[in-house]
Amino acid sequence: MRVSKEFKVGLLVVLGFLLIYVLVNILKGESIWGGDREFLAEFDNSFGLAPSNAVLLNGVKVGQVVEVDLHPEKVDKVQVRFSIQDDELQISDSSVIWLVSSDILGTKALEIKLDTVPRKTVKYYQEGDVFVSRSEQTIEEQINEQILPLKKKTEELLVSIDGIILSVKTFWDTSAAYTIDESLYEVRDAIDKFGELANNLSVLVQKETEQVSKILKDVKQISGTLADKTQLIAQTLDNLHAITDTIKNSNLGIVIDEAEVALSEFSDLLAKINSGEGSMGKLLHTSVLHDELEKTMVALQNVLNDLEANPNKYVHFSLFGRKTKGYTTTPEKEDILDEMLDSLQLNQ
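The structure corresponding to this sequence follows.
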């Protein structure tokens, strides 16, 4: 079968267009026959993001940007359509896609940040879903964030410098110079007074030198005396040490405990006496003894008075052996009676 030249030319043209399509898709990073899953993302600004920019996952390209356009419903948003080539890659719906700079030149790309937190139930993005989107700061924003505080501090510093310059300028007027002159005169007077004070202090030191020397001599003598008495001081300290050891080894605690017990019993005894318990308590808190003593004194006084009025009634004395009726006594009874009379006179 003979093939015409026209057919051959047409076949070559078709094959050329097919080769160009394949090369374009390869250069764009798309699948040759299509079929990649496509998703959406929304941003406030595209920041130069363009079709064919990469979609990254942990720094590895897993897809590319297909289209960047204004959102059809939200006028303040940019809608980005991107594809993911790996059909087996499942992305949870809690993951976030970021608009980032992929190199130092500022080339934009989309980077997927997977959610690695364990969850009981996990849902995945399906084709056509809108990813949760974030935008990182641009270089300009980062520079502004660093420069603006520095600019503000520089302006404040300039204002402070202007105030200082104004204050210095105001200070160096005529009145300020006059004030400085007066201050210098006062400083000179103060220096003169300080010199006089130093001279007076020198004279005082010279006058007190003798007294200081005497004090030092006394101190030296005392230190020598202490040095001579070192052995005696050591013996005294040894004696004190022996005394303290004796006290430590003695049953001082037992003695103190017994003394406390004795004091406690004595306190109880005094309490009982004060409350009228026992013979001593009754004796101190009742008037029976006083009443009885008073009655005895009265009776003895009556006997004394009767004895003075009628001595013959109690004492019998006869030179001729005449017996008088009445009370008879013996020398022993007379001695007892004399002692009773003496004691009564002493009490009176």
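The beta strands are 37-43, 54-57, 60-70, 78-84, 96-101, 108-113, 130-135.
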